[in-house]
Amino acid sequence: QFQSLQLERETCLASNCTQAKVNLSLRPRLEDGKASLAIKYQELQEIREACWDKQQRLEAYLEKWNPQSALSQLQAKLDASEAESEEQIKQFLTQDLPLESFLESFCQSRTRSHICRTQLEKLQELLQKDRVQKEQVGRDPVGCPGAPASMAP
């Protein structure tokens, strides 16, 4: 029985030694994997930061250039153009502006006002259409599974 335990002990030691050699032979692969993982993690961190920066810029851009902002900017531009026209009329009536200069500058100013007003009205119209469409999509079950056919236009 002692010999069998001795044999089992030697077998276990040999097995442990073999397993240790296998494990040691795999160590370079493990170290390479760790290094590769660290590099990938660093790349991920850089991509995450770049995405976050782009997200912040996109949000700022959308906030600055949303339709309501464009509407406000057009309204301000129209108001300024109208005020400029009024000022030109006052200058002409007080004879601070000669007729030729008045006609030229007043026509340009009114043209800018007209263009701006047209753009403003068109944008308001588009925003209204968009608002109506969104309201209809919210109420209209067409295209939804299970919607009754009688509800379709």
TrEMBL record:
Keywords for the protein's UniProt record, in alphabetical order: Endosome, Protein transport, Transport
Keyword Protein transport: yes
Top-level taxon: Eukaryota
One GO biological process term: ubiquitin-dependent protein catabolic process via the multivesicular body sorting pathway
Region annotated Disordered, chain positions: 134-153
One protein family per Pfam: Mod_r
Record-annotated VPS37 C-terminal domain positions: 48-137
Gene3D superfamilies associated with the record: Helix hairpin bin
Principal location: membrane
Keyword Transport: yes
Cellular compartments annotated: Late endosome membrane
GO CC term (a single one): ESCRT I complex
Membrane topology label: Peripheral membrane protein
Function: Component of the ESCRT-I complex, a regulator of vesicular trafficking process. Required for the sorting of endocytic ubiquitinated cargos into multivesicular bodies. May be involved in cell growth and differentiation.
Family of this protein: Belongs to the VPS37 family.
The name this protein goes by in its record: VP37D protein
Organism, as annotated: Thryothorus ludovicianus
